[in-house]
Amino acid sequence: MAERKPFLLRLEPATLAALQRWAADDLRSLNGQIEFLLRHALQDAGRAARAHPPSPGRRTATGGRPPRGKDPRQ
Questions:
Q1: pLDDT tens across 4-13, in order?
Q2: Closest-CA residue to 9 (of 29, 27, 31)
Q3: CB–CB of 33/26 below 8 Å?
Q4: pTM value?
């Protein structure tokens, strides 16, 4: 299993309560429900995480893309 990093998330009480109810309905923990929702949102947006991150210093489509119409090889 991949390493997991703790992350503090502040939510409005009503949002937290709604997520807790949804997690219980889906038989998931609150943390599992939030991860599930984030993964699906990333997939829907076309930003799903890769299985293996690119090597350091390598240009990525989201981090090193040149402006439209510009050829990076010029």
A1: 899 999 999 9
A2: 31
A3: yes
A4: 0.61
